[in-house]
Amino acid sequence: MKILVVGAGIAGSAVALMLSRSGHDVTVVDAAPEPPTGGFLLLFDSVAMEVFGQLGATSIAEQHSVPTPEISIRINGRRLTSFTWPGARLARRGALIGALSRYVAETVSMTFGRKLTGIEQRLGSVQAHYEDGSHETYDLIVGADGVNSTVRRLVIGPDDGMVYRNGRVHHWIRVPGTLAGTSRATVLLANGVQCQFFPYPDQDATLLATVIHAGDGRLEPAELLQASTDVLRRSGREYAAFIERVNAVDPDSTRITRFTQVRGERWHAPRVVLVGDAAHCIDPLSGLGAHGGLLGAAILTEELSRTPRDIWAASERYTRRTRRFVRPSQLFTAALVEASTGKGIRRYRTVVPDLVRASISYRNVRVPSASYAPHRR
Ligand SMILES: Cc1cc2nc3c(=O)[nH]c(=O)nc-3n(C[C@H](O)[C@H](O)[C@H](O)COP(=O)(O)OP(=O)(O)OC[C@H]3O[C@@H](n4cnc5c(N)ncnc54)[C@H](O)[C@@H]3O)c2cc1C
């Protein structure tokens, strides 16, 4: 089949290489002028690592990440628990995505600076329209264009009713130095605000990701920085020393995103199918975005190989299988974030049933065996 993949993020790059190795004629386009570099942090787990391995990209993933340190959680300064996440790794998001897309571009035709703006479904084919006025015909379009997917809006419909938001915003801040002089990761909860601190793997700096309930309103970066320093102040003397560093951060260097989950029932239309965040964004805070995007890409490739002449049936099976682990992950992530940024610790009890469902769904995850992986490196 002649296949267009829209988006060269983790999901798009992975599915492009898998489909190409399965014998399809694959092209990738990405609206960004070039592959990303640097960026904030991305945590990925052992399932993501297994799929990187199947792609032959183990050394790329290892080169751009380090094992996730022990994570300790404190509520109002009191230590709740510490845990390690076996097999999980921390990467600079842009650096990892950039390296993966460059690796895939060695095999698959990939063009940056080309934005998809329209899709025309025809009998027996599908046409992609680009911002530069050009158009091209394909057998299948795979929409891997992220949480604000254009492909999704064009073929499935508007975001209303499909995108779940709960009024929480994330504030992403790079702070020089490490928290309390350690290389541990720490989650501080106080005042209905959650602050996650993760040390950068490649420099003396810490990612501070603050989550706060903003409702429908808009919070300015300076107000969000103030909320983070309040949490540090309430968490004990060892953390108070970090306040000065947070205060010195230029608010314009920070980034604000809204808690967003894509919960649509349908992930495909005739000759168009969505993968990664475009289909099922879990939310960056879950640590499961790469897991979901990579596993979904492998499942879609496997299902298309089973019935190459029936894209619709393959897309239906892919959606059913992928949703089995995505939906519990979404419910658990939302419950955890809402409990930790709501009123009162007792609400944590509401998280337990979702945690149980999510754990069961992970235990049942099977990474498809890779018929598309001719070699490892
Ligand atoms: C700041 C931040 C931190 C995150 N941290 C984590 C984390 O710790 N753990 C985790 O698991 N996940 C995290 N995530 C989410 C994770 O990165 C994604 O879930 C995962 O990488 C899968 O993304 P994707 O490939 O589906 O989409 P994306 O990575 O969003 O890629 C989409 C691509 O599509 C391109 N595109 C968009 N529109 C068009 C168009 N019209 N035409 C052509 N191209 C287009 C974009 O340029 C982009 O390159 C984070 C996300 C962000 C933003």
Automatic annotation (TrEMBL):
Domain of life: Bacteria
Cited Pfam families: FAD_binding_3
An MF annotation (GO) of this entry: FAD binding
Ranges of residues in domain FAD-binding: 2-304
Matching PANTHER family: MONOOXYGENASE (PTHR46865:SF2), OXIDOREDUCTASE-RELATED (PTHR46865)
Name of this protein: 2-polyprenyl-6-methoxyphenol hydroxylase
Protein's organism: Nannocystis exedens
